[in-house]
Amino acid sequence: MSHYITSKMSNPLYFRVLNRNLARFCVKNVRKASTQTHGNEKETHFGFETVKESEKAKKVHEVFENVAQNYDVMNDAMSLGIHRVWKDIFLDRLSPTKNTKLLDVAGGTGDIAFRFLNHVKNSNQEENCHVTVMDINSNMVEVGKIRSEALKFDKSVISWEVGDAECLPFKDNSFNAYTIAFGIRNVTHIDKVLEEAYRVLQPGGRFMCLEFSHLPNSAAQWVYDQYSFQVIPVLGKLIAGQWQPYQYLVESIRKFPDQKNFGSMIESAGFRSVTYENLTLGVVAIHSGFKL
Amino acid sequence: MSLVTLFKSVRINLRSPCTLVSACRFNSTTNNTNNNSTEQNEQYEEDIKEKILCASLKFVPELGWSKDALSAGAQTVGYPGVTHGLFHSGGADLVHYFQVSSNNKLVEILKKLQEDSNPLPPVEFVEKACKERLQMVVPYLGKWPQAIAIMSLPPNVPNSLATLLTMVDDICYYAGDRSVDFNWYLRRIGIAGVYKATELYLIQDKSAEHEESWRFLNRRLEDAVQLHDLISKSDVASQGAKDTALSAFVTARNILGLNWNR
């Protein structure tokens, strides 16, 4: 991939074409953002756009259908590899023990699931542990399955499902840990997802969410904003050949509630002992709650 | 005088197990829940935490003051192992719980001792109290160095100092100390020193029934009494001792974050 980019980049013509493309995309985005959707149906946000609630799921689906192949490469490029550290810390906070039945929602490519399996293996707590990976997008699940086979994980400890986080296809009290990493931002009804998480967890079960958040320091937020809006979509265009999904990514981060508000949403769903922890100044936050 | 009352109020606060929770918490934003139900909710959470901590203590001799002990404890009371995440500082929360609950047990014992028909003289009372308290550590002796190490880590120092000060304050109070001068500090710091020294002696004591430790405790208390007599008999020395005691107390106070000059 890198070879491909460098050889392309050395060509001045490529840059001219790219610039034209970028300009076109920018214009399109501005136009899109200014269109208002009206109607009787409830509206929600898709990035900075306002769309009908029924349309959001479809739009998010399209985004991830397109990026599935390049998802992991882009994560590394955009976060300079730090997303790996965030996910490691996330699993360290969960510290799974024996008999942990984990449901990893929106875990398509298996980043959290593989870390979970490695964590229990390294801490000698493998006994009776199992992870169910669920994602609404079958393309993402396919990528995960292929990776799982390449990494030679035992098929008996990991299972893959395609399903909706707002309506989980599982019985009540069937898991004791629920993780959702960089996924809850993309759902239409956050409250429904939280209620479903509460339903499938057994008493004592832990809900954990890793998600982009807001920086309490306004100077840092400014720097972060510059990076998000000026660099990330460009990276998306250069590496994955797509502007729109990454424009959506940074916009949806701005629309997601901040640490305190999201914390109270988790509490409203019935979770207790709700806490959060900021990583990298609040670029991402780990929220945690218990069903007691 | 105001120092004394403030110290007392801190002592009362530390008795409640609510201090176990140090992480940021949310105040429920749903306005329709009144204060009463929030209190009930918190009590409910605290009860569960206490149940898990209590069950975890049984696993300490085997698994140490650790997340493993907490998850084993959670499983015995019917929760999954991952519930150990309720305790953000892991082993430190478990040690703190043990210290607080042992202090509460000690108060019960001291109350009974005080109500005894022929009360012990103060020095013997203090010796008996220290011994009773150290006896509570004995079942966990193999893992006690680990507990000391955990509680010496900078983030845990305020908690461990506070539990120690609460304990010596209880001992002094029930031994009949009603002083309102600098002796108040001297006695407490003196007993804290003797207690901690004996604790260190105890963890490497191999004698039967830990007899050597109890003799060590007896000798240290004798030393303390002699020192106390010496100081109170000499005016110059007493001024110096007062200054030392005061500065030590102010330091401890600042570490605990209790600044009443605000």
UniProtKB/TrEMBL annotation, chain A:
What biological-process GO terms show up in the record?
Answer: methylation
EC category: transferase
What Enzyme Commission number(s) does the record list for this chain? 2.1.1.201
Catalytic reaction annotation: a 2-methoxy-6-(all-trans-polyprenyl)benzene-1,4-diol + S-adenosyl-L-methionine = a 5-methoxy-2-methyl-3-(all-trans-polyprenyl)benzene-1,4-diol + S-adenosyl-L-homocysteine + H(+)
- GO molecular function list: 2-methoxy-6-polyprenyl-1,4-benzoquinol methyltransferase activity
Q: What is its main location?
A: mitochondrion
What stretches pass through the bilayer?
A: none
Q: What Pfam families does UniProt report for this protein, alphabetically?
A: Ubie_methyltran (PF01209)
Location(s) in or outside the cell: Mitochondrion inner membrane
Q: Which domain of life is it from?
A: Eukaryota
Residues annotated as binding S-adenosyl-L-methionine are 109, 135, 164-165
The record's listing under PROSITE patterns reads: SAM_MT_UBIE (PS51608), UBIE_1 (PS01183), UBIE_2 (PS01184)
Pathway note: Cofactor biosynthesis; ubiquinone biosynthesis
- An example Gene Ontology CC term for this record: extrinsic component of mitochondrial inner membrane
Keyword vocabulary terms for this entry: Membrane, Methyltransferase, Mitochondrion, Mitochondrion inner membrane, S-adenosyl-L-methionine, Transferase, Ubiquinone biosynthesis
InterPro entries documented for this protein: SAM-dependent_MTases_sf (IPR029063), UbiE/COQ5_MeTrFase (IPR004033), UbiE/COQ5_MeTrFase_CS (IPR023576)
Regarding the membrane, this protein is recorded as:
Peripheral membrane protein
Protein function: Methyltransferase required for the conversion of 2-polyprenyl-6-methoxy-1,4-benzoquinol (DDMQH2) to 2-polyprenyl-3-methyl-6-methoxy-1,4-benzoquinol (DMQH2).
Protein family (similarity comment):
Belongs to the class I-like SAM-binding methyltransferase superfamily. MenG/UbiE family.
Q: How does it assemble?
A: Component of a multi-subunit COQ enzyme complex, composed of at least COQ3, COQ4, COQ5, COQ6, COQ7 and COQ9. Interacts with PYURF; the interaction is direct, stabilizes COQ5 protein and associates PYURF with COQ enzyme complex.
Name of this protein: 2-methoxy-6-polyprenyl-1,4-benzoquinol methylase, mitochondrial
Automatic annotation (TrEMBL), chain B:
Cellular-component GO terms for this entry: mitochondrial inner membrane
Pathway note: Cofactor biosynthesis; ubiquinone biosynthesis
Q: One Pfam family name from the record?
A: COQ9
Please give a single GO biological process term from the UniProt record: ubiquinone biosynthetic process
Task: Provide this UniProt record's keywords sorted from A to Z.
Answer: Lipid-binding, Mitochondrion, Transit peptide, Ubiquinone biosynthesis
Where does the record place a coiled coil? Answer: none
UniProt name for this protein:
Ubiquinone biosynthesis protein
Species annotation: Brassicogethes aeneus (Rape pollen beetle)
